[in-house]
Fold these 2 entries.
Entry 1:
Amino acid sequence: MHIPPLIKRNTFLFALSQSFTGAGMSMGYGIGPLMVVALTGSASLAGLSVGLFGLSRFVVAYPVGKISDAYGRKPGILLGLMLALVGALALWQSMAVTSTWLLALGMLLFGMGMNAAQQMRVAATDMFPPSMRAQALGYVALGSLAGLLMMPVLIGGGEYLSLHVGGHALGLPWLLLPLLILPGMAVVALVRPDPKQIGMNLSAYYPDYVPPRRAEGAPVRAFSPRELLRDPRMRLAIVSNCAGQGNMAIVMVLTALVLHHHGHSLTAIAFSHLWHSIGMFAFTVPLGKLADRYGREWVMYPGVATTLAGAILVTYTTPFLLITIGTFLVGIGWAAANVASTALIADRYESAERGRAIGVADSFAGGAAVLAAIVTGPLIDYSGLPAAGLTAVLVAAVPLIMRAMTRV
């Protein structure tokens, strides 16, 4: 099916915005733990940043989905980026005035904003028919890969300013981040028309598209999260997404600790994390195409299984190469589960309720990330690194067991 130029343009603009704004979330995960340790002096609280980012996703995903269903995707995305802008400035100030409370508030606001901006994914599903919906998600996610390349520039710029102008090296990158967020907002403002309007009238953009019978003249039913959770396929999609998110949250912490335990340098640890990030974003388009061609479940469940295999390698092997392959597998498995599960939910719901449906899934994923952040530290303290790794494996096994026991 031919993609209209207008849809290509809008998709490019969303991917471009993601490339600007994606650097912020990567930076939050990268230096957030260091900021917590710098202000609290406690390494045991390093996971606070990951937990706050997960909590922010849990809090904001459904409300912003409701806003975007009512008023359009662009208002929801722009609201999120505005929150992220305020949060970034709060994080800069938290290091300047050495305030742990301001740091926590800044992380919560920034995380809420960046997760609200994930309505770009919903916008992508609006603009494409089901046969191309998963690859559309992949194109937008691919923008995050470019954002990763901007993160070292922000951190390096902050270090340069701290040496030549003054200020905290961990705080100044957040002062520079609005230089990317503002262009990201401007790019989103250029999208025309709002993707929700496109989604509600797909046949006007794709003449060969035949809407499903349930969409022809039927009134929009009131969205119900309970109804969503009663559907076995939707439950499995949500649990698969949660498993990928929870597994990855544990392994992201575990990889650095395991490599440090085996005596590897900080440079080697950073290189290993780079491969994890490549796995997360570099293959989203081909994974989306596979999901479109062969079906969502044929990508979603193998994705979850891949995170399980990656967690085993990270936890129970010692060579640097095998650990790095493991963290890469966790990244690509998460991408497969996320793209396929999101597309599966988007297929089930029309544009008028899709923001809330995907918001429910994102809220559960945020809860899984919070839970993973809470349990990882105590598990390592009391039972060692293998216990945390085993937990990551068990988390990934849940949807696979559920699928084996469910008839759908």
Entry 2:
Amino acid sequence: MENTNIIEAENLTKIYKLYNKQMDRLKEALHFSKKKYHKEFKALKEVSFKVKSGECLGIIGKNGSGKSTLLKILTGVLTPTSGSLQIKGKISALLELGAGFNPDFTGLENIYLNGTIMGYTREDMDSKLKDILDFADIGEFIYQPVKSYSSGMFVRLAFAVAINVEPDILIIDEALSVGDIRFQQKCYRKIDELKRTKTILVVTHDMAAINKYCDRVLWINEGELVDEGDPKSISKKYQAFMIGSEFKKMNFNQQSDHAQDGSNTSVSDEVELLSDELEVMGDNKALITGISLLDAYTNEKVSVVEGNQHLKLLIRINIMEDIYRPIVGFSIKDRLGTIISQTNSYVLGFEMESLIPGRNYVFGFDFKFPNLNHGQYTISPAIASGTQEDHCQHSWVHDALILQVLPAGYEELSGIVHMSDVGFLTF
């Protein structure tokens, strides 16, 4: 089944009939002229996509966008109003808490119930029982009714069953968000392992997980397929959409820069103007036009850095409209687009004066670079206004600066941050 389509959805549509009163449903059924007493709500609107065998597909969208409806159609819980769906292989799904489990049955009884639903005999489930119990790790609670379980215990058992019934397709809908951190990490390690042989569909609001584990992403909004493609690209568009900002690719070679400088000219000259086509989001009240990373001692521009190196980051911004309570900051991201670190003027305690349109400003950060593992990282500068909790994004340039971090001498160590300032004690 390798490289073949294991799921093919064509124009999937799901329409719900909404009635103001229960009696209206009966009136509609009995009315001789077929008068309608309902309003139609389209939860899905002609959604089409394909999933290849062995692919890990992420599905994103705000709450109420139709993601769960789509998954229920894929698992056979719901029937589409129109459209066609072809699935090759056995599906195991971890949907909302409670789905597929009888609350009055014990955990053990529900294991065998789910096995029966999946077409396994009791003997088959006997052979899988140890693996399920070991993964769930809920001890004697396996003999208690699941209605007495906490949400964390429930998802432990549900996930353990879902991965051990040997599905061709594993579907996970936000359920892992209720587990504790150790169990979440255990589940994601298992997903990493299953990716080699299984097809996986994941619904989550965690963009870091989307970027790390998924090969492709579907973005659904108001029941419609908005976009699909590379996780990093789609997650950036989705992030901009969720904060009400415009997302676009901008060619900075074509940007004219006639604004009056509001900063020290010598400092402004140190900032290298952006010259590539970059992805930008914001409302265009300001535009970041330049960024430079300098060694704090020599003031030379650097693109290769070491952990704990003393640096200065300069950001040049062109202001188009008055900006009150401005916030300037930056993010450091790894090659998967995961934010490693962030800071800004607000959290650092600097209250800035309003910025005047028609002028350029240069803002700087003086810091020691994190002691990161060797590899490539990017810096994304941003300007907003308001507070950390409630702000409006004016300009955020994704991956404006690419850095190479030199090896710290112990390349075989895993992780992102090297812990160098650590004491070793003997007793």
